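Appendix B, example 12.
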Amino acid sequence: MRVVVDASVVVKWAVPEPYSQEARKLRNDHLLGRVKAVAPPCLWLEVASALREYVIRGVLPNDKALTAAELLYQTEVEIEEVDPRQVLATALKHGVTTYDAAYVYLAEKHNTLLYTADEKLLKHPKARHIKDY
């Protein structure tokens, strides 16, 4: 089964946060082949941005953030290209950012669930909070 994951979930694979345990269960299922985690190309930039914020706030030192980025990248989330025109149409339709729309677009395209910890995305019918995984 294919599921879409956003950066709010993937970061929890390496950084202890609320619902990290549920996020890691999804990661483990992905690594064991029980599910296939997919995301748009913006995933890794959003993950890098989140890790940078942790460094700025003093939650992680630089070296830990860099190590986390490497470990997360090794999980081999399937990155699927998205058509920017379709993403824009999705953003306008659902009133979300284009980055969020890229995840929503993939969930709609594959008729599958989008796991997130982003409250704004939970308004979409395909979105599920990671706490429910």
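The chain has a mean pLDDT of 97. Helices lie at 7-10, 20-31, 42-56, 62-73, 84-94, 98-110.
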